[in-house]
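Q: I have 89 residues here and want to know how they pack in 3D. Can you give me a structure?
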Amino acid sequence: MRSNDAPRAVCIDTCPREPEASFQCHGTKNVKKEDCDTLFDPATGKGHIGYGTNPLLGRFCVPNINKLPKEIDRTKYDNLVGQFGLDDI
C-alpha cells in the first residue's frame, strides 16, 4: 500500500449481497459516514461504489468478484485476497 492510500474499510450492519443493496454504515476515521450513505459522484470523488459481497465468519464482508462493477480496480481486489491470511482472522 502506498503511503498516501488510506484504509477504506468500514463497519456496516449487514453484508450487501448485491451492488444495489442497502446497508447501514458507521463510518471510520478515513471514511466518513456520509460518504458511505451516498452513491459515488465522479464530480466530487465522494460516495461509495456498490458491489456485492459474501459474508465471512459472520464478521467480515468479502467482495464477490462476480459482482464487482467496472469502476472497481480488480488488481486491488487481487491484492486484498493475496494479503488476507490466518493472522487477519
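Q: Anything worth noting?
A: Residues 74-83 form the longest helix (10 residues). The longest strand covers residues 53-56.
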